[in-house]
Amino acid sequence: MGGAARATSARPTTDTFEVARYLRTLRTSDAVRAWRGDEIRRAAEQLAAVGVHDPSLVTRDHIVAYVAQMEDAGLTVETVAQALAVLTSYFAWHCREHPARRGAAPRTNPAHGVRTAHSAACPDCGAAGRQRADRGSSLKGACAVRDSRLPAWAPSRFEASLTASAANTRAAYRRDIELFAEWMDAAEPGAGPRGTDRGHVRAYLTVLHDGGATARTVARRIASLRRYFAWATAEGMAGSDPTDAVHTPATKGRLPRPIDADTAASLVSTEDEDAPEWRRARDRAVLEILYGSGLRVSEVCGLTLQSMSGDGSTVRVMGKGSKERLVPLSAPAKRAVARWAKVRDEVVAPRSGAWLFLGARGGQLSRRDVARLLDEAGERIGLAGGTHPHALRHSFATHLMDNGADTRSIQELLGHSDASTTQRYTHVSKEKLRAAYAESHPRA
Hints:
The structure is a single chain. The protein is an all-alpha fold. The model is unreliable at 126-139 (pLDDT under 50). It contains 20 helices and two strands. The chain folds into three domains: 1-120; 150-246, Tyrosine recombinase, N-terminal domain (DNA polymerase, domain 1); 261-418, Intergrase catalytic core (hpI Integrase, Chain A, Orthogonal Bundle). It has a two-stranded antiparallel sheet.
């Protein structure tokens, strides 16, 4: 969340933008809600500076100019892309809430379709990678445009040094460092890693805490900073480690929140009757695998045609840390994959490669695509509050545990390297037993 780490100053009134009213419509955490509010208010201040005080008068040119201003200020590609995504969501809401008067031309979202300079002309990412380039912190690897930002902090070199970590972990560490570097450049321009001391780190953690960040988020940021400054010190970029003696907040272990078996079955079997057959078949296969085999969403997106066994009964999965495992497919998942295979050619494109699941334009299915199709499935069955892809993985493991599977087998199926991670599902089952006892036994 970029806003949690960017310095703030005294702000003029932005009441006409109805930010508080918009934030009340969001189903998200307080920290994310606060971050989005900061992003919108920051944009409103810049718009007011050029004489635009009414969001109904904001044009595409205004948004393009604001994006260019952020990029010229040296903010990272992810921060600019995230701010643009927030504005796109906000103006979509504002257009719905304040439609044009009768007889006037309908309002259009001024942020819709606006691209960052990076996504429009990146020589490294190229046309095939532009969709990924706009996905915020999911962006991984070298990129000339991205690496030109925050040069004193060398985030790309730091990311490249994390050779033992998975790609998602490297990207998360880099993003944490970029957020801290942006905050430092705003709080004390030119300080860089060598000019960072313990007081800076503690002040930054205070900003995170005041912004509503959870103890888990703060702990992860500290871990990222410790990893970075250990590297920066070894590289001669910092004289000492400013994270020494910085306290890491205690975090409470979170138990998984599974979906009950009946709801999970309804969720994975529902289909959009108005969608084309290829989409219905793909969505059904994805959901059946998420719940029936307990795969992570990134693992499902990473499946290839070669991942499937000859008889379609098992799938070879590349998990965290490039560790492979063989996972059985449920009978419904096997049938769903076979159904999808018959219509996959309808969306195959030159960039499809060997990816098993494809998006509408023929590219690799993304995690956002999976989250979207799951949201739609939840709406069709009236699932209050919605759900997320990892909840199906939690449900897979919990339902196995409830029905007598041993912990070691579940650990192998989930691909956990540490048995203590799998033990969480034992606790969930114990809580279920306690609840049943309390409700049923006369002496409870």
